[in-house]
């Protein structure tokens, strides 16, 4: 239970985080020394120094890597010849040529923010249909899928969870299906594993489109980054930024995309786009609000972006005050009760002791007791569960651990709304209302909110807030004329490289930054929230390095296209990927050695599930860690054994293949 809580959103955790979670769950009644001993002897965990992961996570990471590697040169190309449209840029033509002529079952392209990815996807869908394939476009979230629907792809578009769970969608997949996953960088480890298993089962292809420089998934595992850095995944890249029209602004976004956020921020300062002001009485927020409203009065689309919801609320208050003073917002406000999510993990939702009376549960799936969309109130915590009150006033006992994936936990909050207000929807309701959509209020009657576009929010739909300012996560799939980033010292803890890159790249024409400490903000935008993978536990890599292992050479990209360029070799790379060939995972290398040894000995390769399980069994604590009661050979001994087997086999057979060192 404790490990589920810690590892639901992270693949690697420090020891103190696991101990802290255990002590909280045990209400301080656990003995710390005994807890540490139990943790050290837990066979389900992988420990290196003071960092932990789980064997389940490691096995899934290895599964992704091995599945991609097994799919290299495993299929015929989609198109024998492809003549790209002249309206496409050179990088767009190259990306399309790569995925259409690739011999790999899993391929794709990286689309930097504003690089014209949508144009490529539209052309990709057209060619796939012309060649007799069935494109299946999907995205990790409803808002990202809705963005795809607006691109005239002329094919069915769905969320990744729907593709994985909908029996009708699964039944339509065949060897002629090509699954195109947009925003792949925002897909977590578990969903990517399910997608790859599905592709294997249905014998279909997968094309990934995403940018690992933007926000990753909320759930554990940066799956696309793991594939890019540790597998034989071959992809092309859209390198030309097209969204930003002014050259100076475009250069700033290019620097941020290249992870040179310090230089990008310096350029913003140089251009006078950074406003530094005191914020004792909300002056900073007022200046940001005035900039936003000035853009909208000129008929431009604009977006306020801030790292935290507390700062978003502060900026929103200034915007609404100004709108009411100008008469653009009706003075007659209605107080609506809305649902404010606490963003609990599944493990937290299963723990009945976490709940408090007055909290709300919003049902996101149909269950035995509740309809989808229902919001119920927690009345009391009872033995092994909760007592909740339905909207009709009836009460029922409910065991949260039985359906933790079926509801969200939050609090009731009063929200003042007037005619003319913009709202941000924070949940889906069928296909008519999409999470992340901005809507404007026309009028409110009897608690029902009528919108300017003619729709009316469904009765009981209460998951929304004001829509003037959003987090960078919510802004990720949006494009506006002007973007205004508001980040005062009260929210610096939530500022990082990815957040800054996503925020400033939303605008076409201009970007403004408002802060009360430009020097400190300049340092914070260089911090990365990139999460460590299980295969990146450092001591595992060190053990193999001491044995003289070097990363495997990238497979030379093969294509039936006349231009057989290796897209990896010729495209401009980000700094972190310039040395990608030196960052091969030791566990991946160990897997490859084990498979090669078996082939040299004339044995059939074992199914990937068995191989992955055996590899995880070889991952043991380092010498600095207290040994457990179970006796195992060290990773070093395992590798040496494989090397020795290889050497003996080479002496026995002149036709053996060697390892490149």
Task: Tell me what the structure shows.
By secondary structure, the protein is of the alpha/beta class. 37% of the residues lie in helices and 19% in strands. Strands 6-5-7-8-4-9 form a 6-stranded parallel sheet. A 6-stranded antiparallel sheet has the order 12-17-13-14-15-16, with no helix packed on it. Helix 7 (142-149) links the parallel strand 5 (134-139) and strand 6. Helix 4 crosses helix 11 (223-230) and helix 4 packs across helix 23 (608-618). The longest helix is centred in the last third of the chain and has 18 residues, at 635-652. The radius of gyration is 27 Å and the shape is globular. Residues 547-591, 596-636 and 653-661 have low confidence and may be disordered.
Average of pLDDT:
81
Largest sheet: 6 strands, parallel
Helical element count? Answer: 24
Within the largest sheet, what's the order of strands?
6-5-7-8-4-9
- Rounded to an integer in angstroms, the radius of gyration calculated over CA atoms is 27 Å
Strand residues, percent: 15-25%
Structural class comes to: alpha/beta
Number of strands: 24
- Fraction of helical residues: 25-40%
Low-pLDDT windows of residues:
547-591, 596-636, 653-661
Question: Quick recap of the structure?
Answer:
This protein is an alpha/beta fold and 661 residues long. Helix content is 37%, strand content 19%.
Secondary-structure blueprint:
Blueprint: H1 2-7, E1 13-14, H2 15-25, H3 32-40, E2 45-48, E3 51-54, H4 55-70, H5 90-101, E4 106-111, H6 117-130, E5 134-139, H7 142-149, E6 157-159, H8 160-165, H9 167-171, E7 177-181, H10 189-202, E8 205-210, H11 223-230, E9 234-238, H12 247-257, H13 261-270, E10 274-276, H14 283-297, E11 302-305, H15 309-325, E12 334-341, H16 346-350, E13 360-363, E14 375-382, E15 385-389, E16 395-398, E17 407-417, E18 422-425, E19 438-445, E20 448-451, E21 464-466, E22 469-470, H17 472-475, E23 480-486, H18 497-504, E24 507-515, H19 518-524, H20 538-546, H21 567-570, H22 586-600, H23 608-618, H24 635-652
Parallel strand pairs: 4-8, 4-9, 5-6, 5-7, 7-8, 10-24, 11-22, 11-23, 23-24
Antiparallel strand pairs: 1-3, 2-3, 12-17, 13-14, 13-17, 14-15, 15-16, 18-19, 18-21, 19-20
Helix pairs in contact: 4-10, 4-11, 4-23, 5-6, 12-13, 14-15, 22-23, 22-24
């Amino acid at each position: 239970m404790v490990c589920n809580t810690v590892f639901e959103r992270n693949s690697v955790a420090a020891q103190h985080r696991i101990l802290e979670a255990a002590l909280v769950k045990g209400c301080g009644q656990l003995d710390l020394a005994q807890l540490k001993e139990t943790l050290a002897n837990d066979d389900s965990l992988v420990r290196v120094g003071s960092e932990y992961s789980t064997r389940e996570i490691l096995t899934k990471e290895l599964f992704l890597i091995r599945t991609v590697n097994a799919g290299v040169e495993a299929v015929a190309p989609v198109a024998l010849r492809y003549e790209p449209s002249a309206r496409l840029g050179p990088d767009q033509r190259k990306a399309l040529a790569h995925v259409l002529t690739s011999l790999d079952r899993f391929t794709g392209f990286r689309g930097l923010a504003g690089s014209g990815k949508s144009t490529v996807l539209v052309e990709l869908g057209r060619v796939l249909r012309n060649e007799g394939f069935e494109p299946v476009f999907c995205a990790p979230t409803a808002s990202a899928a809705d963005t795809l629907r607006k691109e005239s792809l002329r094919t069915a578009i769905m969320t990744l969870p729907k593709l994985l769970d909908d029996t009708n969608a699964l039944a339509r997949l065949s060897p002629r299906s090509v699954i195109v996953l947009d925003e792949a960088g925002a897909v977590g480890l578990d969903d990517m594993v399910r997608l790859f298993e599905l592709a294997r089962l249905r014998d279909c292809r997968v094309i990934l489109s995403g940018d690992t420089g933007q926000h990753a998934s909320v759930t554990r595992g940066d799956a696309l980054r793991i594939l890019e850095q540790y597998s034989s995944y071959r992809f092309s890249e859209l390198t030309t930024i097209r969204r930003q029209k002014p050259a100076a602004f475009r250069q700033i976004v290019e620097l941020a995309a290249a992870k040179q956020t310090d230089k990008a921020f310096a350029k913003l300062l140089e251009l006078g786009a950074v406003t530094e002001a005191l914020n004792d009485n909300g002056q900073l927020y007022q200046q940001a609000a005035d900039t936003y409203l000035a853009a909208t009065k000129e008929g431009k689309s604009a977006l306020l972006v801030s790292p935290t919801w507390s700062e978003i609320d502060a900026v929103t208050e200034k915007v609404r005050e100004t709108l009411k003073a100008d008469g653009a917002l009706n003075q007659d406000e209605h107080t609506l009760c809305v649902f404010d999510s606490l963003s609990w993990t599944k493990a937290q939702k299963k723990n009945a002791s976490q709940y408090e009376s007055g909290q709300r549960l919003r049902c996101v799936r149909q269950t035995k007791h509740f309809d989808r969309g229902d919001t119920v109130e927690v009345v009391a915590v009872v033995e092994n569960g909760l007592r909740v009150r339905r909207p009709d006033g009836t009460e029922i006992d409910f065991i949260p651990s039985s359906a933790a994936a079926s509801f969200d936990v939050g609090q009731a909050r009063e929200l003042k709304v007037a005619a003319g207000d913009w709202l941000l929807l924070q949940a889906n309701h069928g296909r008519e209302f999409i999470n992340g959509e901005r809507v404007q209020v026309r009028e409110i009657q009897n608690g029902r909110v009528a919108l300017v576009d003619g729709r009316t929010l469904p009765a009981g739909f209460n998951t929304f807030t004001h829509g003037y300012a959003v987090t960078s996560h919510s802004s990720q799939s949006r494009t506006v004329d002007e973007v205004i980033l508001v980040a005062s010292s009260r929210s610096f803890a939530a500022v990082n490289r990815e957040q800054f890159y996503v925020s400033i790249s939303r605008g076409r024409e201009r970007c403004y930054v408002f802060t009360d400490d430009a020097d400190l903000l300049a340092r914070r935008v260089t911090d990365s929230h990139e999460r460590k993978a299980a295969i990146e536990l450092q001591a595992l890599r060190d053990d193999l390095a001491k044995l003289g292992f070097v990363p495997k050479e990238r497979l030379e990209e093969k294509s039936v296209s006349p231009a057989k360029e290796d897209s990896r070799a010729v495209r401009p790379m980000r700094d972190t990927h310039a040395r990608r060939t030196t960052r091969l995972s030791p566990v991946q290398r160990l897997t490859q050695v084990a498979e090669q040894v078996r082939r040299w000995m004339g044995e059939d390769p074992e199914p990937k599930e068995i191989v992955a399980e055996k590899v995880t069994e070889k991952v043991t604590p380092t010498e600095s860690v207290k040994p457990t009661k179970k006796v195992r050979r060290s990773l070093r001994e395992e590798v040496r054994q494989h090397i020795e087997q290889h050497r003996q086999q080479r002496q026995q057979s002149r036709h053996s293949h060697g390892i490149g060192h």
